[in-house]
């Protein structure tokens, strides 16, 4: 093997190792979130079930470091994001964050802490996202499969960019729902945000 080929092989190995290390860092972020669900949410479900404000605070503490709600709002608003004022964008992000934490937080209390499995990383598609699969089981025995799509914001600072729950793409679903609300409210963004908040609250 010539020296040039040896160098190429060595560099290829280094690049592959770096990419794999980055993907593992994404998985490690999900591991940290899931472990926090176990220790800070599920373990105290008897107390948190009767204290929704405390539950929301704990979920906020766990998820806020790994979710860019401003970016999430941009993706959900889609083409309407460019038309929105800075205040409307901020309001949409805040409404989405606060309502989701309160609406979906209670479902975490139904997870079986002994039936949570973070799967090894599988083959990844080309792009900026790394998919991390986690299998949960609810207290009633029903399965729950989550695909966490993580994006590197730099220096291995991985954040959740989308989630698929039992094959339902929540990012895409929310985007379609907001588009419908814009149409129903004659493309008035403030009215659509109000409708969006009511829609999320009804899911509780």
UniProtKB/TrEMBL annotation:
Q: Which domain of life is it from?
A: Bacteria
Which UniProt keywords are given for this protein, alphabetically ordered? Signal
Signal peptide positions (record) = 1-21
Keyword Transmembrane recorded: no
Gene source species: Marinomonas pollencensis
Q: Which Pfam families match?
A: MlaC (PF05494)
Q: Which InterPro entries match?
A: MlaC/ttg2D, Tgt2/MlaC_sf
This protein's record includes keyword GTP-binding:
no
Q: What is this protein called?
A: Phospholipid transport system substrate-binding protein
